[in-house]
Design brief:
Largest sheet: 9 strands, mixed
Number of helices: 14
Oligomer: single chain
Number of domains: 2
Distance between the termini: 39 Å
Strand content: 15-25%
Order of helices and strands: EHEHEHEEHEEHHEHHEHHHHHH
CATH topology of the largest domain: Spore Coat Polysaccharide Biosynthesis Protein SpsA, Chain A
CATH class of the largest domain: Alpha Beta
Radius of gyration: 20 Å
């Protein structure tokens, strides 16, 4: 088997606390034909100084603060590898990730993006590390394939954390990289656009650790709300969306409404659920959610989360989707 170069792109903004661990996880890969492309996005702490410790092993670039999408695109423009992996500066790759996934892409040339399972984790105040799989957290949809399968699933929710994937560079370039106007959920938007003309595959295994609750861009509520709304509007306006069955479009609007309610946008949620009922009059969850919000306002989301705790996402149109956004 030949050994093509893999570019691992690490954007960072004020990530001095965890950056060394992220870089070390790339250096510890069993696959050795790797370049690390680090882009500092206007950090004001010691992030750049941490990166400088690895100057001999990492290509380092700096820019003013333009956001994670712009930083990833800056890394993409400088990357030389045939394959791309994206790693946030507070996350970790498990040692076999690149070996396993690049082998799969080499032997399956019809696949453009391969992704796998992993673990979300956090450390308690007592120093105990708690882990849950991506699938248990609702971060994983292991069913993507070609556009006819991937787009209906991606319309409802993102399918995997960004560092769970390995991509052919050409597939990312074909869609123009990341949308730099988004300051949140930019990976979801990327995979939606990739999914219009490229193929995904799920490869069983555990390849990455996702650090929960670090208060990065995922903690910036207004930007997250705006990003979700923009992405959902892009989906609604897409030509392929109009070809989906009414039930799938109904599920999309139900989940969009749950997102709006997570951000306490009751009227926007109600508007989404009206659309959900329009496309599927049998969408009882949208009807129940409408009644709940009219009785409780945005606080109805509390009841919804209790339902998830008691019943889980199984049988729920928006369970995994809402679990993902409630953890971030």
């Amino acid at each position: 088997m030949n050994s093509p170069l893999i570019s691992v792109i690490i954007p960072a903004h004020n990530a001095e606390r965890y950056l060394a661990q992220a870089i070390e996880s790339v250096l510890a890969q069993t696959y050795r034909d790797i370049e690390i492309v680090f882009v500092d996005d206007g950090s004001t702490d010691n992030t750049l100084q941490v990166a400088e410790r690895y100057r001999e092993q990492v290509r380092i670039f700096t820019q003013a603060q333009f956001g994670p999408s712009a930083a990833r695109n800056a890394g993409l423009r400088r990357a030389q590898g045939e394959f791309l992996a994206f790693l946030d500066a507070d996350d970790i790759l498990l040692p076999e990730k690149l070996s396993i996934q690049v082998g799969f892409l080499i032997t399956n040339p019809q696949i453009d993006v391969v992704y796998s399972n992993g673990y979300g984790f956090y450390t308690t105040g007592e120093g105990e590390e708690i882990q849950q799989t991506f699938s248990a957290l609702g971060f994983l949809q292991p069913f993507l394939g070609g556009p006819e399968v991937s787009l209906p699933l991606l319309a409802i929710q993102n399918a995997f954390p960004i560092h769970a994937a390995l991509s052919r560079r050409q597939a990312i370039q074909d869609v123009g990289g990341f949308d730099e106007t988004l300051f949140g959920r930019e990976d979801w938007d990327l995979w939606l656009r990739v999914g219009e003309s490229h193929r995904f595959a799920y490869l069983d295994g555990y390849v990455a650790l996702y650090r929960l609750g670090t208060g990065g861009v995922t903690g910036q509520i207004a930007q997250q709300r705006q990003a979700v709304r923009r992405i959902c509007q892009k989906v609604e306006a897409s030509p392929w969306f109009k070809q989906l069955p009414g039930k799938t479009r109904s599920d999309f609007f139900f989940c969009w409404g749950i997102q709006e309610l997570e951000y306490h946008e009751s009227q926007a949620a109600l508007s989404c659920w009206q659309q959900a009922i329009h496309y599927d009059r049998g969408n009882y969850l949208a009807r129940a959610a409408t009644v709940g919000v009219r009785l409780l306002g945005w606080r109805a989301i509390v009841a919804y989360h209790w339902k998830l705790r008691l019943m889980g996402p199984r049988g729920s149109r928006g369970g995994a989707f809402s679990r993902r956004i409630s953890v971030n």
